[in-house]
């Protein structure tokens, strides 16, 4: 683990380089990637699209052709879409544009740790409204109350790492109740069924911004492309602060193919949802393992000794999952990405053996 730099600005003191905790293994289920990758036909079209690109020319800064494809897919206008170098960059830009010194973000931990990091980087105050330790649901009343005095409310649905949804009817009531920007992070929404998305609410509420990514369901984590759908006013704010050329020509071309052919990813998404249920059924049979229901492509489990189980999975079974056992919010918890049927078989067999020891 690298040490923090002694030259960091005081507000950033203690920050160290991000360590994704990767180790070479056979079965990589730690980052919620899609183990299947892109369907072969679609992949061939992406290769062709990239082969013809002029790499000596700057990309279209806003990625307007990609914006048009995304707008057509989601039934909005180009002016309602901004693209970025992965969802992470867009989260940073949201806080840069609408947070900052003297502004407040409402966060609902345990959730994606990037929100807290970017709040710190942009000097945004954070109000933490803790989830119920048992159900892992957000505290709806407390979030609604805090939102009245906040500038940004961060809602993740399905949430990472807990896998549960935020009630959509409540999100609508929240948006109506406050001027704060409600950011709905839908990085995993494709695994939650066709009705889960809040994109239809964007037409009605100019303070809802929906974040989507090609990294998870669409198997393109390496390409770094995501987008936000929101009112023209929110999109203009984000466009004003973004790194002008952050979405490169290759990413734009590849993402256009994925957007145009998004329906061809549905069979793999459906299979991953079936496999999620198969894993949940298997975990339910194991003594000492608690698994929370999930609407995403991962499952949060609690085991008797999280750290030891994580290490044994890695070192004895060559399976890497995400270890949350050190966090105060999720003691002894691991997050296991749903993989291919073969990968999931290995997870089931290994965990069965480990908890029987
Ligand atoms: C993975 C993820 C993202 C975005 O990932 P990118 O690869 O940067 O697009 C955003 N939010 C959550 C909760 C995620 O888990």
| Sequence of secondary-structure elements | EHHEHEHEHEHEHEEHHHEEHEEEH
Listed once per kind, the bound small molecules are: pyridoxal-5'-phosphate
Measure the end-to-end span.
31 Å
What fraction, in percent, of the residue positions are helical?
Answer: 25-40%
Number of helices in the DSSP assignment: 12
Which term fits the overall shape? globular
Using only C-alpha atoms, the radius of gyration works out to 20 Å
Record field, number of beta strands: 13
Main sheet strand line-up: 2-8-7-6-5-3-4
User: Average pLDDT value?
Assistant: 97
State the major sheet: 7 strands, mixed
Unreliable residue runs = none
Structural class: alpha/beta
The portion of residues forming beta strands comes to: 5-15%
Structure description:
- With 357 residues, this protein is α/β, with parallel strands linked by helices.
- The protein has 12 helices and 13 strands.
- It has helices at 40-51, 64-74, 86-98, 114-121, 140-147, 168-177, 199-202, 232-241, 249-260, 266-284, 306-317, 341-356; strands at 27-28, 81-84, 104-107, 125-128, 152-156, 181-185, 208-213, 226-229, 290-291, 298-302, 319-320, 322-323, 333-337.
- Strands 2-8-7-6-5-3-4 form a 7-stranded mixed beta sheet, with helices on both faces. The protein has a 4-stranded antiparallel beta sheet with strand order 9-10-13-12. A two-stranded parallel ribbon has the order 1-11.
- It is globular.
- It starts with 26 loop residues before the first strand and ends with a helix.
- It binds pyridoxal-5'-phosphate (PLP).
- Residues 32, 86-88, 112, 156, 160, 185, 187, 213, 215-216, 221, 226 line the site of pyridoxal-5'-phosphate (PLP).
